[in-house]
Amino acid sequence: MNIYIDHEFHYETENLVRLFFPNEKITVIQGIPEDTAAEDVISSVKDGEIYTAFSGESESCHFKDTDTKNIERKMAVCLYQVLVRVTGRKQPWGILTGVRPIKLFRRLSESGGRSYAKDYFISELLVSDEKTNLSAVTEEYERKILALSQPRSFSLYISIPFCPSRCSYCSFVSQSIEKAQKLIEPYFELLCREIAYTAEIAKDCQLQLESVYIGGGTPTTLNAEHLATLINTVNENFDMTTCREFTVEAGRPDTIDKDKLTAILKGGADRISINPQTLNDKVLEVIGRKHNSEQTLNAYKLAREVGFRHINMDLIAGLPTDTAESFRDTLDRICELSPESITVHTLAMKRSSRLTQEGNSLDTDKEVPAAKMLRYCEEKLVCEGYHPYYLYRQTRMEGNLENVGWSKDG
Length: 410
Description:
- The chain is α/β, with parallel strands linked by helices.
- The protein has three domains: 2-87, no CATH class; 101-145, no CATH class; 148-408, TIM Barrel.
- It is 43% helix and 20% strand.
- It contains 13 helices and 15 strands.
- The chain has an eight-stranded mixed sheet. Strands 2-1-3-4-5 form a five-stranded mixed sheet, with helices on one face. Strands 7-8 form a two-stranded parallel ribbon.
- Strand 1 (2-5), helix 1 (10-20) and strand 2 (27-30) form a beta-alpha-beta unit.
- Helix 3 (101-112) packs across helix 4 (114-123), helix 3 packs across helix 5 (129-146) and helix 7 runs parallel beside helix 8 (258-266).
- The radius of gyration is 23 Å and the shape is globular.
- The N and C termini lie far apart (49 Å).
């Protein structure tokens, strides 16, 4: 698909078209020729007029603005309306293509109030009522967290890029233990040295550590001794007196045992993330997980017995072969466990993932199953006492949806 433009809004134009045609190869060409094909997108901003044409549909409007951002928004609205008429599909986030819509909502709220922000999302950005309301609630809780931070606050992320196996949807820099066993020891040694070096930089800059997150990959592919050494290295090199949260991602239930959990908790990491993604064993097999739902439940029970009082669990909406009914069952069973927080991701079809490389593509139906799954999440989790405290979006997500972190009070 070719997009011909005569303006500077290359990035926004391409990304907006990609929302409607996520599986197409798209080329943006500067300059509009006299003869174009019906399958070409035309986007013009010239002499106070915006004009868009595609597949027999067209839209135009006049503008007197000199504000570049507002002209870009009007161009996007024009293009969006044409794409909706051609495809018959509306986007839940309207013309928004950015990663952090909550950041925009906050900025609008600060300049004109929350009612203004909601009205702007709906009328000017064409965001659905459902996602606008979710944005408003999320921003309210996120703002309370951000208010606790200081100008010199920072968070420390430590990567362990090894996993028991590589999930079909994964695009992270990570290797399976089978392939990378010999790399663990040298990587670990250099990592501990880098932690100490980074701590010196933070100290010189007089920065204040607020949170630590050891992620991956799967950090619990390390043995208990390595985990204890890693956490002690953080404790010995950083000033931990201002650290409000220390998380270790114990993401794969098949890598969790009592010794590892004890080492994590004893070291002062009081929050772990146990990530089933789904409790449907058939779906787990399809995505390349080497564990079953029973192992997830056992790992959760063990973590409670060891003494963890803050457990997060990750789920993914829109996994291959999963259904709205199966996802509903997963969420209901997770809620019965009552973890302190639940993070609900939407499947993103990243280009480097095995799913994409094997020829799978994004669903372009009017409403994808993931949309029903997320709708149930909102209904169920609110009733269970959870609230959304952060939200972000990625490219190539099923249904152009979002990832949301849900947490109980406190």
